[in-house]
Amino acid sequence: AAPQVGLELYGHAATWRSPDSTATRDYGRVSAILRVALPVADPTWRVGMEAGAGTSWGEVPVQRHWFLGGPTTLRWYEASVTSGPSFARARLEVAKIYSQTITLSAFSDAGWAGLRDDFDSDDMLYSVGMGASLLDGLIRMDLSQGLTGPSRFRVDLYLDAIL
After folding, report:
1. Which of 57, 81, 105, 129 has its CA 20 to 30 A from that of 137?
2. DSSP 8-state code for residue 78
């Protein structure tokens, strides 16, 4: 029931050689993700927020792009639905705790990946949904709907939820 704050910082620098060249190329990547979970109204209601961004410099190989999609970054969308040398994403979740082991929630996710200079909020992908978790978020099931793309629902079962 206490407030929780977490910050994840990531940095990566490397040199690589493309298969069709003898020249080497350098690149670097950095990202930051901030997570906050707070009690609201009374101890049985909580709100969780997550915001993250990352970028790259140099000639980044495709396998080192940032990939968004799936239950840990952008629910409803398939894994790696969008990727690029830069990304921005956010998540918001409101949860009602019914016992020490059961929590129900409503959420929304937003995310973008691509070239830093090409960022346009119109290219963001959005989703909404409802979730249920057991054992303080250890086991989680989400029913989500994308707000861009085909009109269908997706169910995901995974471990370690935000709330």
Report:
1. 81
2. P
Whether pTM exceeds 0.90: no
* Band (125; pLDDT cuts 50, 70, 90): very high
Unique residue bearing structure tokens 């269908």? 152
Q: How confident is the model at residue 135 (pLDDT cuts 50, 70, 90)?
A: confident
What is the model's pLDDT at position 163?
A: 58
Residues paired with residue 95 on neighbouring β-strands, in sequence order: 46, 105
Of the two residues 73 and 121, the one the predictor is more confident about is: 73
H helix runs in 73-161, sequence order: none
How far apart CA 106 and CA 92 sit, in angstroms, is 8
Distances from the Cα of 149 to the Cαs of 23, 63, 80, in angstroms? 41, 25, 15
Cα–Cα distance, 74 to 71 (Å, whole number): 6
CB neighbour list of residue 117: distance below 8 Å, 6 or more residues apart: none
Q: Which two tokens stand for residue 122?
A: 């119109």
**Residue 122: CA atoms inside 13 Å, Cβ hemisphere, count?**
1
Q: In what order do the strands lie in the sheet with 4-17?
A: 4-17, 24-40, 45-58, 86-97, 102-114, 125-134, 139-146, 153-159
